[in-house]
Amino acid sequence: MKAAFLGLGAIGRPMAMRLAARTQLTVWNRTRARADELAAQCGARAAGSPREAAQGAAVVLTCLPTSADVERLLAGADGLEAGLAADSLFLDCTSGDPATSRRIAQRLAARGVAFADCPVSGGTSGAEAGTLTVMVGGDEATFARARPVLEAFGRRIEHMGPVGTGHAMKAVNNALLAVNLEAFGEGVAALVKAGVPARKAVEVLNSSSGRSFVSEALVPERVLTGRWPQTFRLALLDKDVGIALGVLDENGVPGPVLHLIGELFRHARATLGEEADHVEVIRLIEREAGAEIRG
Ligand code: NDP
Fold first, then answer.
1. In sequence order, what are the residues at sequence separation of 6 or more whose Cβ sits closer than 8 angstroms to the Cβ of residue 4?
2. Distance between CA atoms of 209 and 37, rounded to whole angstroms?
3. Separation of CA 12 and ligand 1 centre (Å)
4. What angle do CA 41, 42, 45 make, to 5 degrees?
5. Contact 128/14 with Cβ under 8 angstroms?
6. Cβ neighbours for 285, distance < 8 A, ≥ 6 positions apart
7. pTM of the model
8. 30 within ligand 1 shell (Cβ under 6 A)
9. Per-residue pLDDT tens for 140-154?
């Protein structure tokens, strides 16, 4: 099977690497050097334009920051749409927004191209290991065609419902991640100032009911150690909280907690910048509280 993968960022790159191991893969990236480097490393072919990447591919996958970026990539003489074959499959792994994906799906359906939103969860390490969770929005027939492709990097592959529901699921998941990051930082900064050693606080939380993925995985690996690796940009998590707020609004759910989290993440993004990692929101809380969560 011939496939194409466009968007070789922090998570797209390891996903494309896994696809290259089982398909004849063409890659495209806005910064060409990244596509050339990956192609050289795994025997894929680097394309000079989105159109060229899509030509001859039975399946095209994208992983860009936003759905608006995907929509822009489709347009123009050298755009993806110009290269897509009728009866091909378009799988968008961007953590995108439901409304834009519904519009994209409609536009592609008119040309006989099937679309599903397929955002992923599990981080860059999950992409490398092929253990991502994939949340798929599309019709049953498209899901059945997509599953074997997604198995290259996904372990749990779930059909959530029609186009857009994969994005909605992913956005709500990430909004809860944002809640846990913020609440953990606030609570443990206060404990540290009250004289509780940070590591002990984390260990007790992790054998109690306040634990979360943040306290069990992110904090021990990244915060207590002072490592702060860059794997998932805070700017992207802020974008996801915004998408989740749209899902709440569309469905008439007021959501005071998530609206407040939206404000706090906008502030964190403005303060820490576009390249900061998402866990660094805890750094901001540390700074504002005058407490270090280390140990
Ligand atoms: P990065 O910021 O690391 O990479 C973004 C990629 O998109 C790069 O290849 C970049 O190209 C390309 N790009 C950016 N803007 C455009 C544009 N306007 N047109 C074309 N290409 C563009 O992002 P990630 O890889 O981390 O994230 C990608 C998606 O996956 C996001 O939606 C994110 O929310 C989601 N995600 C990320 C996870 C993670 O752990 N990192 C986990 C789960 C989901 P260039 O090389 O030229 O900059």
1. 25, 26, 27, 28, 47, 53, 54, 57, 59, 60, 61
2. 46
3. 7
4. 100
5. yes
6. 182, 185, 186, 189
7. 0.98
8. yes
9. 999 999 999 999 999
